[in-house]
């Protein structure tokens, strides 16, 4: 009976979620390395009211049956991995990734026995800093703003000797140059561990600008298909992944695009609520048939 | 006998259906590739009425009478939607400007009645998907993604078909692939065609449907071809001489917006509501007439 009401209510539900996503994008317009999300809609399964063969009169355009749509729903929320702009900061510990890659981090969490266990996570936010190493005061850990350790190609946390300056080349190779003794040979600290993103839609965003692989991917052992190591990625013919020292990658949210999306989503919401009040009036009329 | 009571009730039901259709159009103003539809109603079959009593042997005909209205069909409008840039490498929009042979000038609804009285419909181009039953499905919603198996799929997980009729497995991340206006996959860095596992170049399959009115909407942006007489053929872009295929373009990083006209949809809703109200009033007038017949005519 009140198909219109159901139809409009479901669609408003989806639009509300789109508004939430846009609000989150706008909130992160200044977050370094942030990748925006995009909501898209699809129409809901159509039902067909069957009709007799006698309905197939000359001049009828469509096959038999009266189709009825049931509104729209969210079909997918996609991460847009588009490159953000580089902002030079001249800070030697700021790194920006050029190309479709991610830095690998180790996130420490205490297990049941109180021992810290490191799990892998990935980020585009290269605003790194140095943190003290309680076990070895002569070497500092390279960490993210939240204190997660940055890994090198040998899967060890990158450790920087005290009073050394980092020099990073385009391929992500790190050299530490002594600040006290200009004549000393630079120390090779290895290469940033970076991965190429093959299927960005399968990454799971856990907040704090971090991506992890979902449980199912790890369980099926198919993580190679989502994230591949640098050499495999560069050999596949894709544009090579590089690092820019002294720059940060800005958020790829475009405020004017988000505002336009916000307006169109809000107007669609308004229009749907108009349909709700209209079908409410119809139900009122039906209820008052017997005046 | 008051025949009009049931006619007015049928009118209310039909206006309700019109309201549903307009609401569905409004609900899908943000759905890429959505084609708005129009509900067409039809009068109940005419009947001849004649005087039953007092007409004598030759009963006298009064005339024809329709006794109601019903919602007959829901016709999608395949007008081209506007293109919106998204910069997303898995988004595709189709511009379909197909022509018949010989070329015809179509009206807005994509129809032409020739001088001989033959109706010609404008063919439309669609992306081809593989339905769950293995049959081909058609869509204009080019908001695709890559699933966990690496195949290009649409928003509800149906596989997008390549030009050879098989699902597409891009060997590179989609951001490294540039798709030409004819649907060919090229490596964005060196411009070379992207090859599949059998070393054949990958391309999207674009299907041409001769009479799109015969498509049945299934929801999720997909259509099914049900009528055995109408045909769908894959457009072969390599045959340049085939002038009929001119006017189809694939655009990567764009989506085709819904073709619903919001002003029209709002007016449809308002007119359906008011027409529903008119029918409701007519029902009430009949009720009052019956009230008179029952309570006043028989009073002594």
Comma- or semicolon-separated keywords:
heterodimer, A: 291 residues, alpha+beta, 7-stranded antiparallel beta sheet, 3-stranded antiparallel beta sheet, 5 helices, B: 300 residues, two-stranded antiparallel sheet, 2 helices, 21 strands, elongated
Describe the model.
The complex is a heterodimer of chains A (291) and B (300). Chain A is α+β, with helices and mostly antiparallel strands. In chain A, 25% of the residues lie in helices and 32% in strands. Chain A has 5 helices and 21 strands. In chain A, strands 7, 8, 11, 16, 17, 18 and 19 form a 7-stranded antiparallel β-sheet that branches. In chain A, strands 9-10-12 form a 3-stranded antiparallel β-sheet, with no helix packed on it. In chain A, a hairpin with a 5-residue loop joins strand 7 and strand 8 (116-123). Chain A starts with a helix and ends with a helix. The model of chain A has no long low-confidence stretch (mean pLDDT 89). Chain B has 300 residues and is an alpha+beta fold. Helix content of chain B is 19%, strand content 28%. Chain B has 2 helices and 21 strands. In chain B, strands 9, 10, 13, 16, 17, 18 and 19 form a 7-stranded antiparallel β-sheet that branches. In chain B, strands 1-4 form a two-stranded antiparallel ribbon. Chain B has a two-stranded antiparallel sheet with strand order 2-3. In chain B, helix 1 packs antiparallel against helix 2. The two termini of chain B are 23 Å apart. Chains A and B meet through helix 1, strand 1, strand 3, strand 4 and helix 5 of A and helix 1, strand 4, strand 11, strand 17 and helix 2 of B.
